[in-house]
Amino acid sequence: MVEATALPAPKGTVLPGLGLTLGMTLAYLGLIVLLPLAAVFATAAGMGLDEILRLLMDPRTLAALRVSFATALLAAAINAVAGLVVAWVLVRYDFPLKRLVDGVIDLPFALPTAVAGIALAGLYGPNGWVGAPLAEAGLRVAYTPADIVVALAFIGLPFVVRTVEPVLADLDREYEEAAATLGASRLQVVSRVVMPVLLPPLLTGFALAFARGVGEYGSVIFIAGNLPYLSEVAPLLIVIKLEEYNYAGATTIAAAMLLTSFLMLLVINLLGNWTRRRAGHV
Amino acid sequence: MTLLHPDRSADSPVAIRIDEVSKSFGGTRVLDRVSMTIAPGRLTALLGPSGSGKTTLLRVIAGLERQTGGIVAFDGVDADRLTLRDRRVGFVFQHYALFRHMTVSDNIAFGLRVRPRRERPDRQAIARKVSELLELMQLQGLERRFPAQLSGGQRQRVAIARALAIEPTVLLLDEPFGALDAKVRKDLRRWLREVCERAQVTTVFVTHDQEEALELADGIAIMNRGRIEQSGSPMEVFEDPRTPFVCEFLGNVNRFDCTYGEGYVEVCGAQFPVDWGGRGAGIAYIRAHEFEVVAREHAEGVPAIVDAVHPFGDAVALEVRVEDRPRTVAVSISRELWELGEIRKGDGILVRPNNVRVFRAAS
Question: What CATH number does the domain containing A197 carry?
Answer without folding.
Answer: 1.10.3720.10
